[in-house]
Specification:
homodimer, Rossmann fold, 3 domains, six-stranded mixed beta sheet, five-stranded parallel beta sheet, about 45% helix, about 10% strand, globular
Amino acid sequence: MIYTNPDTTAAWARLLSLAPAGTSFDFIRRLDAERVKTCSVPMAAGLSYNWAAKAADEPVLGALQALADEQNLIPKYRLLVEGEVMNTGEGRMVLHHLLRSPGGMSATGKPVLYRGKDLGAFYRNERDRFSAFAESVRKGEITGSTGKPFKNAVQIGIGGSDLGPRALALALDNWASARGLKKLTPWFISNVDPDDASSAAASLSLEETLFILVSKSGVTQETLANELLIKDKLQRAGLDPSRHMAAVTSETSPLAHNPAYLDSFYIDDFIGGRYSSCSAVGGVILSLAFGPGVFGEFLGGAHGADKLALEGDIRSNAALLDALLGVWERNFLGYPATAVLPYSQALARFPAHLQQLDMESNGKRVNRAGEDISYATGPLIFGEPGTNGQHSFYQFLHQGTDIVPLQFAGFAESQRNDDVEVEGSSSQTKLKANLAAQITAFAKGKEDGDRNKLFPGGRPSSLIHGTCLTPAALGSLLAHFENKVLFQGLVWNINSFDQEGVQLGKLLTKKVLAGGGSGDSALDAYGALLGV
Amino acid sequence: MIYTNPDTTAAWARLLSLAPAGTSFDFIRRLDAERVKTCSVPMAAGLSYNWAAKAADEPVLGALQALADEQNLIPKYRLLVEGEVMNTGEGRMVLHHLLRSPGGMSATGKPVLYRGKDLGAFYRNERDRFSAFAESVRKGEITGSTGKPFKNAVQIGIGGSDLGPRALALALDNWASARGLKKLTPWFISNVDPDDASSAAASLSLEETLFILVSKSGVTQETLANELLIKDKLQRAGLDPSRHMAAVTSETSPLAHNPAYLDSFYIDDFIGGRYSSCSAVGGVILSLAFGPGVFGEFLGGAHGADKLALEGDIRSNAALLDALLGVWERNFLGYPATAVLPYSQALARFPAHLQQLDMESNGKRVNRAGEDISYATGPLIFGEPGTNGQHSFYQFLHQGTDIVPLQFAGFAESQRNDDVEVEGSSSQTKLKANLAAQITAFAKGKEDGDRNKLFPGGRPSSLIHGTCLTPAALGSLLAHFENKVLFQGLVWNINSFDQEGVQLGKLLTKKVLAGGGSGDSALDAYGALLGV
């Protein structure tokens, strides 16, 4: 397979020539009911991706399709799911798709072997193990050291071991509660700031609390510090830490096969941190909280998305189209950021997860071959749920001097189905009406003689929508964005699966903590200012 | 007073000529211990603002000072705190500084009168009233309708009635808990998504819960819907809603002087939503949770910052300097975003508040006279606490293709003073070592033969630091950013105190909810997609 920079393709040149038309796309004339109805691509689990409010017409779509084809995106995606070493810098396969693929086969139906080991079977076995563990805890068969059943499940992890699982736990909490499926309350400790773990320990009944220590390497600074802080609390409370802790790690880590834990569940180097939500990293706490069945439905939605992502026609592959429209906006229309705006309180922390997923994957400045590149890569990602954001930063989005493309999501039904009618409409209806209104307002704007009340419009957006944020819909949503980010990385010819940019900070931190001068007088002076 | 666009000043032209030197500022050579020690400005409540890692030298500082002088920033700030009608679009004074000024005088020591009414005395009287109310609730003298003392205080509000108070409550929670001052647990309901209020109601013991309804106008769609949802829950639980609800509103709103509430506390049109944290909007819930004394210390810190902001020399006025360095980065170095990165879990939601504060204030495209402008205004603001962000989006910040200036904060001591030593250092020391390391890594970068491991550096940052995040330090921090945003708005000659950009969405939402077709076929089609 040939990997080339996108700016060497014919499609790139064609897109450059189309860019002026994109920046002056006439939404007022072109965005009508017909366009809303036709610009829609089905996603897994009954969701749809609607791109009617994107500044793209047929010539643009054609050039984006050509770019996808010239960059061989689908063949490369097939290679990836089948076990090609796509994380070139670290010499690793990229196998998070395999975590959710039933039967332990790749999304294309093939086994993935590594040194004779069937990795699909390995992941499936771990899932079976933690599912059984979760069931035993939920039934009260596994208890804490005083014999009381566990009521709380606290994940201790950071980055990929925190943001994804945290966002997903919040996303499913009300859905599961309303259906009587929630048994343990999920909590999260991440920051090395000792106030984080200390306050969690002070708020919880420790004898009813199970801690899940999550670190692939087993040597994450923050996580180990928090583990010891919590162990100290457990001991002071007269509890046996080994009866209150489980681990998620790799088999070669110090946490593996360790009697300090009730049990340990395994992942491996082919599951990147920010792509690990479908592994034991997300699976243990979600299964404890909501049951292995709910987690299974979630995985089913994600697998459905992975299969749809095999489609070569951008008009039928939502993740691919979303990716290419993002490239259009980033590289040709010149927009440096994207706002993620779910109209669902359950998705309140989903933007924070996507922020990591996207910015850590594609915030890169060299290509797969380690050469400098001259085009922009991954955008800045931020967001908060609507309608909250409307009362916050939407002023900037509507009337600021920069244009930020918007990624909306919304659902016909709430998760708890508990609503009230005020002035002729339910809250859920108001929520949806606001969403529809914002898309239109951003795209079309409004003339006004008072220029302070004028809305320039021309703010492009997409909308993912469905009936309800079920576990399957959530899996579909997560995998959609994982695959979108992956496709964009392939377009840009970068390695989306390493994160060398986090290393320098770690190195300098160690120098500071070692004491005796770091060799950099400014660094030492900053340390002194902060009282290190 | 003369208000002119900044690009007409001599300083602007001078800064344009200095910009190339700014983008190639040699941090490796220039950022040393001496610079770290000298580039520091005292803030209120013992904090300091350090700008050593900003790409600015003496000529730039001189030109920024000239810009501040040419734009008359300090005289305009004086006018503002003394009651000039600075919110020109809405014809209103801007009086949030008066909320924290002891004795009811402006920060410059003058009374502020409006139609014969002493507004400082009015705000002070409201503060006395809600302080007494909070004390009575905390002592169990005011109880719910079953006679049980209140354990929870739930704010129902959105935007400025939510983000600031929520960020501040989280910021003080551990500090107050560790000192035995926390009596009620603060909660927040904001989103019109019915799952938000429904899940809060299901999680709380309603007979022990006091709801605080916050809406200046009294007609905020989300807040009224949530009020009715909660009232319904209270009634179904056999409770009398009027014994479980207080209101914060303006005296002319439908919520004022209304027997449906235990009591009502007042603000007025001169307190903008995003600037209302120091009024009853933030004061009632913070006083209930942590006591009026804690809220008073917080106000003291904010007032200290307001006084320091009167200083004309940018080298002695942290808010002014921060503002001008932001203008330097936005308009001359061309950086469209700023990341807010507090190394303090207590400040986890502070970036979300600053996001509103900054983006709603300065995300504007016309000047105070309503004329289009040709320079960039307020930047995109986002952020998460460190070290969490290090494991998320810092990859993009270190090695992405765009440069994002960084606003760091950190403290010598944790709030709970409950820590553990691992591998020779406490968690708090690790937290601070990480912060020092990141500032240096971002500024200086690192050469590497492997360009994937090369860090280009040149990422500017500032650091606010102090001993501990106390209530006074938090007040100082909040007022610093309020004044920074205000100064930037004055530089850009925009009105930072209106928000016309939120109106179009409201208007279109009403059209959708009215039914029968909005007059825009696309809007109707989006409504149909979502099942409105």
